[in-house]
From TrEMBL:
PTM sites of type N6-(pyridoxal phosphate)lysine: 294
InterPro entries in the cross-refs: Aromatic_deC (IPR010977), PyrdxlP-dep_de-COase (IPR002129), PyrdxlP-dep_Trfase (IPR015424), PyrdxlP-dep_Trfase_major (IPR015421), PyrdxlP-dep_Trfase_small (IPR015422), Pyridoxal-P_BS (IPR021115)
Signal peptide start-end: none
Cofactor(s) required, per the database record: pyridoxal 5'-phosphate
Listed name of the protein: Aspartate aminotransferase family protein
Lineage: Bacteria, Bacillati, Actinomycetota, Actinomycetes, Micrococcales
Length: 467
């Protein structure tokens, strides 16, 4: 064994204690660490010829890189839709690395069974039921891609083609219909050979991002019975608007289509009795996307996908090799997603669900919704800022009250980030440039709302028009 490896092995318990201390300092610094950082990029150096051991690597990381990491795990990182990591999920993530299980195939470990149990819990949590089977994937993009891949196979089934063997060319043009699709949908369509331009945007309700179901029916009727894919939203990115899932599903009585629901973070409304009606009909979907490193607050990367058609899913993703089990009624996870190698991704989720239960995660969801509303109220009362849309759940979509040009809104975002108090990402809503504040973090409080609003108000003053 290499001397450095042998030395680290001999000192491993104390080195792990040092690592834990470093992680604890990092977590403790989140209240004071700048939420977004802009520091010089370290000079590029050649790969080390002679290592310096784990202790030396910890020191080098602290001296060179650690200060340049953002406070994205903290309470005021409101950019994109980013959760943090609950204490229990951090512990689960560390153990997932320590045990280093590949859960793709079974027979040598209980890890795949823990993964299946966790998926069963998630299905129960979101009211999906037993008709769906789930798999862990890296994020919402892969979850949406898997769902559309199964949908593509279903289209082939309707047309008498075997896409997994004959290729997507056997289908001819496939229409994908959606009101306000997430950017990962056309990306998935490109990956799957369906083509980005085959995405047909359906009109939405007046002043909403939710699809107009009457317009959707008109679009389906225009296909003259040809099977299609409908992508519905359980929470849009800008305003967390919800399509009427039950009404959309009812259209399948008259038109052939696969219903995929992108519930990446909006489906977490199911955890709140006050908001669960928003996802009524989720269990009627053919495939579902859920992203756990958002509102479940487990570390990157973790998402799940659910599907009704396990047979079609295994046709797409089965992996045939002499050293693998054959695909049966209860296939190994290797046959369900693109990855042959799969990290023990369920363990952080299992830890968080066991540690805090349905009640604890419901509290996170309901608190974040209340905090989003509180920020919305402050924006509404601020003469320098205005809401671009009602605060429907956990995202506040806002802009400058006067002259919100792209340049001025970008300057607003940059000024907020430079303050170190908060981080918001830009968007365009109904043609107007704006910012989005997405509340997903388990540790965000009302004090954080006050700090975020103060940072926005101060930045708005800096960006006030001189003309």
């Amino acid at each position: 064994m290499h001397p450095r490896l042998a030395a680290d092995l001999d000192r491993l318990p104390s080195l792990l204690d040092t690592t834990v201390a470093a992680a604890a300092r990092g977590l403790a610094s989140l209240e004071d660490r700048p939420v977004a950082v802009a520091v010089p990029i370290p000079a590029l150096v050649p790969v080390p010829e002679h290592g310096i051991g784990l202790g030396g690597a910890l020191t080098s990381f602290a001296e060179t890189w650690e200060a340049g990491l953002s406070g994205s795990a903290g309470p005021r990182y409101l950019g994109f839709v980013t959760g943090g990591a609950t204490p229990a999920s951090v512990a689960g993530d560390w153990l997932a690395s320590a045990y280093d299980q590949n859960v793709a195939a079974g027979g040598d470990s209980l890890a795949p069974e823990l993964q299946r149990q966790t998926l069963t819990w998630l299905a129960e949590l979101f009211g999906i039921g037993t008709a769906h089977r789930g798999s862990f994937v890296t994020g919402a993009t892969v979850s949406n891609t898997v769902g559309l891949a199964i949908a593509r196979e279903w289209i082939g089934e309707q047309l008498g083609a075997d896409v997994s063997r004959d290729g997507v060319a056997a289908l001819g043009p496939v229409t994908v219909l959606s009101g306000t699709p997430h950017s990962s949908i056309p990306k998935a369509m490109s990956v799957l050979g369906l083509g980005r331009d085959r995405l047909q945007r359906v009109p939405t309700l007046l002043g909403r991002e939710a699809v107009d179901v009457v317009a959707l029916e008109t679009a389906l009727a225009s296909l003259d019975g040809k099977p299609a894919i409908v992508v519905a939203n359980a929470g849009t990115v800008n305003t967390v608007d919800f399509d009427d899932l039950r009404a959309i599903a009812a259209l399948r009585e008259r038109y052939p289509f696969w219903l995929h629901v992108d519930g990446s973070f909006g489906a977490f409304a199911a955890l709140s009795p006050e908001h669960a009606h928003l996802v009524d009909g989720l269990d009627l979907a053919d495939s579902i996307c859920l992203d756990l490193h958002k509102w479940l607050n487990v570390p990157y990367d973790a998402a799940v996908q659910f599907s009704r058609r396990l047979d079609l899913q295994t046709k797409v993703f089965q992996n045939t090799a002499s050293y693998l089990t054959v695909v049966g009624d209860d296939p190994d996870l290797i046959h369900l997603t693109p990855e042959n190698s799969q990290r023990f991704r369920a363990l952080p989720t299992w830890f968080s669900l066991v540690a805090y239960g349905r009640e604890g995660h419901r509290e996170i969801v309901e608190r974040d919704i209340a905090l989003a509303r509180a920020l919305g109220d402050r924006i509404d009362a601020d003469q320098a800022l205005r809401l671009l849309a009602p605060v429907r759940l956990n995202v506040v979509c806002l802009t400058l009250a006067q002259n919100p040009t792209p340049e001025r809104v970008n300057a607003l975002a940059a000024a907020v980030a430079a303050s170190g108090e908060a981080f918001l990402t830009g968007t365009v809503y109904d043609g107007t440039p704006g910012l989005r504040a997405a509340f997903c973090n388990w540790s965000t409080s009302m004090e954080d709302v006050e700090l975020v609003h103060a940072a926005l108000a101060k930045a708005a003053e800096l960006c006030s028009p001189v003309d």
